[in-house]
Structure formats: structure tokens, C-alpha cells
Amino acid sequence: MTETPPLTVDVVSDVMCPWCFIGKRRLEAALRSVPDLNVLVRWHPFQLDATLPKTGKDRQKYLSDKFGGLDRANAFYSQIRAAGQEEGIPFAFDAITLSPNTLDCHRLILWSNDDDLQDEVVERLFKAYFLEGQDLTKSETLVRISDEAGMQSDLVEQLLETETDLDKVTAQIENAQNSGITGVPCFIIDGRFVLAGAEKAETIAAALLHAEETRANPQAAMSQ
């Protein structure tokens, strides 16, 4: 008897996206509500702004340029702050001084998959940026996060000094864009169902159940 493989949830996200952090919390709540499902979560890269220099950009300047003024940016982020509070995320936007280019962060997430530590690394990156205002463009920040997550930090430090897997991450981002993904988070369930945006936990859970039911019984999918 062949064991049924886990239901996959491929999450396309960017470390500097606050809605992706909120989406992670909602996905976690959804998974807790369906404990009988065997689910494998995999994280994939996206860049909200690929034009950011490797060293990042002053946060106030970035927000002003993006939203056409800080007042408009603050109004936008007040909504995110409220959504974060609902999910137990105390966003500390005022602590963020730099908007980072996240390619190196995505390389770290890619490498963490080899040790089955992706979720831990993604969580620590979100917290470092949104709760502590850490500079994610600095190698020492990423090395420390890798060490705290249980990765081989000495190897990470060496790899960050090279362009190892930079082309792979860039290709994955291009593939996501070519598949029609224009915003994140994006949840791809069982390779068949797509949830675009930080949907509520109930919506994600319903999609997971539907994917499981239709996977087990293809006729159910045809009758929908």
C-alpha cells in the first residue's frame, strides 16, 4: 500500500512584505484548525521591488517615493498595523531604517530547505525585520539568523560572499512572475488551487480541505 504524499502548500512571498508575515500567521492558524491533514509547506521567492540596490534604500525615502509622500504611506501602514495586531504581530515599522534588497534573504531561505529549516528561517527573518528593524542587507545579520535557526552558519557566511544560487533565486522569481503572480503572499495548494493575498485562516483551511477531498476523490472535483 502506497502512502499518500503530503498535501503541498507553496508560498510565494517576500521577506520585506508585511502582508506575507500576516499571511504566514493565518496559514499557521489554518493548519492548526485541520490537524488531521498532512501538509508540507514550501517557501518560494518574490521581490516586491527588484530595483532596490544591494545595500538597500533609506526607509523614509523609499516609502515617500513609493506612496507619493509619507502621509499616504503612514495611512497605508496603519491598516497593516491593525491587521497585524489581530494576528498577534506587533509591527515596529518605526524601527525600520532601511528597505532591503531581499535576494540574499531568499538565498538563505533556499539553503535552509536542505536542513528542513525553512519555516524557522522565514520566521526569524520576518521577526528580525518587522519587529526589531534589523538590517537584512548585512551578511552578519543573515549569518546570525542562520546560526540561531540551526544551520551551518560558517558555511552560510562563506556562501554569502559568493554569488552561489543567485541565478537560481532570480529564475524562480521570474518563473513566479511569468506564471501570473503579481503580488504576494500567494498560496498554491496541491499545485491546483491558488489563493492570492493574505486570506483569512478560515478561507485557507477551507481550501486545504477542498484540495484534500478532491485529491482523494477526483470525481468530487468534476462535480463542483
Automatic annotation (TrEMBL):
InterPro entries: DSBA-like_thioredoxin_dom, Thioredoxin-like_sf
Residues covered by the DSBA-like thioredoxin domain: 8-208
One Pfam family linked to the record: DSBA
Record-linked CDD domains: DsbA_FrnE
Protein name: DsbA family oxidoreductase
Species in which this protein is naturally found: Roseibium sediminicola
Taxonomic path: Bacteria, Pseudomonadati, Pseudomonadota, Alphaproteobacteria, Hyphomicrobiales
